[in-house]
From TrEMBL:
Record localization: Membrane
Record-given protein name: Uncharacterized protein
GO cellular component: membrane
Keywords assigned: GTP-binding, Lipoprotein, Membrane, Nucleotide-binding, Prenylation
Molecular function via GO: GTP binding; GTPase activity
Family statement drawn from the similarity comment of this UniProt entry: Belongs to the small GTPase superfamily. Rab family.
């Protein structure tokens, strides 16, 4: 198999409020780097990473969307065709968690509802001492909506690799099941 050949190409979007660490998560995952002075995303940024799942070569196209309110009219157009989404909030900023519902609704309005896998990430778990979003509250929110849930730290790399692996493996399984005609209906109640 040549370097340019992939069995699957999955589009994944990162969404959430400005300043929650979406760009830092993406940089940590794709380059294993962290920049404390990360600049805010203007519009959209895009990176790729290739991985192996079972015997399949997977290319993840990861789209980092701006969380700033002035870009909100633009970002939904990038959600179309997404196989997966990562909703990110800052565990030290309860407002960023409350706004997750806006991002979830926007994603569900602009993607194929039956075909998207969504991961909820509470980022900055290295700042647990100043946490304002209890883990149990976020976990319950995710469970009620059928979302995968993890807490991460882009700064110290906690669960970053695991988060993307869990998401991409779930997408892979669902895409493989679709090919085999064994698709299971998603749970996204109350959205």
């Amino acid at each position: 198999m040549s370097e340019d050949t992939h069995d699957y190409v999955f589009k994944v979007i990162l969404a959430g409020e400005s300043g929650v660490g979406k760009s830092s998560i993406l940089r940590r995952y794709c380059q294993d780097r962290f920049n404390l002075d990360e600049r805010f995303t203007v519009g959209i940024e895009f990176r790729t990473r290739t991985m192996q799942i079972d015997t399949s070569k997977i290319k993840a196209q990861i789209w980092d969307t701006a969380g700033n309110e002035r870009f909100r009219a633009l970002t939904p157009m990038y959600f179309r065709g997404a196989h997966g989404a990562i909703l990110v909030y800052d565990i030290t900023n309860h407002q960023s968690f409350r706004n997750i519902q806006y991002w979830l609704d926007t994603i569900l309005d602009h993607t194929n509802l039956s075909g998207i896998v969504i991961l909820l990430i509470g980022n900055k778990c290295d700042l647990d001492k100043i946490r304002t979003v209890p883990t149990d509250e976020a976990r319950m929110y995710a469970e009620e909506r059928g979302l995968i849930f993890l807490e991460t730290s882009a700064k110290d790399s906690t669960n970053i690799e695991i988060a993307f692996n869990v998401l991409l493996k779930k997408i892979y399984k669902e895409e493989r099941d679709k090919k085999n005609g064994t698709t299971v209906k998603k749970k996204f109640p109350c959205c």
